[in-house]
Amino acid sequence: MTRVSQDTVLEHWLELERRKADTPSFDTESLSEREMIDRLLRLKPGAASFVWRDAPIEWHRLTLSRRAFERLRVVAGPDELLWRALSPDGTILGAARRIQDGDPDDLTAETGVAVGRILSIRDDPPDEPIVLVDRRDCAPPRVADGNYRATARALTLLETDEYDPVRAYLAVCPRPVLEPLRRRLCDAVRRLLGRRTW
What we know:
Layout: E1 2-4, H1 6-18, H2 33-43, H3 50-53, E2 58-64, H4 66-71, H5 82-86, H6 92-101, H7 104-111, H8 115-121, E3 130-134, E4 142-145, H9 147-160, E5 166-172, H10 178-193
Parallel strand pairs: 3-5
Antiparallel strand pairs: 1-2, 2-5, 3-4
Helix pairs in contact: 1-2, 6-9, 8-9
């Protein structure tokens, strides 16, 4: 595992977004870190929200072991929607198993995840690092960016039992130790002063 700057990850992530057909062209090299965060939040408001919400973040570049890859969870989101709907157990491997056992069109209609896209890159997925988030909550990291690529790799793993190592950028978020304590303390003070606690 190698420590990297947030700029490195933001540039990588924005470059991947820039390549998408429906994204307006822009130059990442001319953007400040703040502008990159702003652009990323506009392009990926749900998946990238942790970048500003959980700051400061410690970023690392690594290659995932097979065991670590098999434990990866899909992007965070509401239960029963998109990736969470596709994966019964919330893992990338669970999403791949569901695709392997299901009809692509039915799964796409049911979940909103473009299963055909996963199948189209399964044999030759782009070798770009995925972006992971570790909230230090005793659970494996979630994939913030790269769910399609990771699921395509998981399908190949299920079909061949061979693991082609996956590279990743890992965001290690600070432990939210003080925030719950601060919230409880503020609520207690408000109650003592007779104020509402919302």
